[in-house]
Amino acid sequence: MSELMLLVLRIGFLVMLWFFVFGVVYSLRSDLFGVRVRKMPAGEAGAAPVASARAAAPRPTASSAQVATRLVITSGPKVGLEVPLGAADSMTIGRSSESGLVIRDDYTSSHHARLSKRGDIWTLQDLGSTNGTFLAGQRLGDTPTQVALGTPIKVGATTFELRA
Prior knowledge:
Layout: H1 3-33, H2 42-45, E1 70-75, E2 82-84, E3 90-94, E4 101-102, E5 113-118, E6 121-126, E7 133-135, E8 138-139, E9 145-147, E10 153-155, E11 158-163
Parallel strand pairs: 3-4
Antiparallel strand pairs: 1-2, 1-11, 3-5, 5-6, 6-9, 7-8, 7-10, 10-11
């Protein structure tokens, strides 16, 4: 083999090696820092369709006019934790430290789901997670779905619900 051919092969090998290194760094970066979640413009927030909850009926509450004020974890690593919703209009759920509810397990995406408030109604939307978000045992799509008080929501290995 000529020296020119060896030089071309060496340079080609180095280029392929650098592509591999950049691919690994990009993969690590996206796993550590997550993917940016697109926020809906204010004009579209009220116009988005809300799917009805197809799941089983939630536990009965004292009054159907009650508004959720807290999120309670009913099973999983943080069982018993109560997160006050306060004046928040939206909360992201996921593994990322930027999330309103951080769930650290292998089955949860960095930005897994979004819990949003429209008036007195809370909606849940899956943000394209790999393992899915479940509302009363039914897998959600990317369409916001209304969440009733006491309805179990499952993200990864954690189950929680809205309570008044």
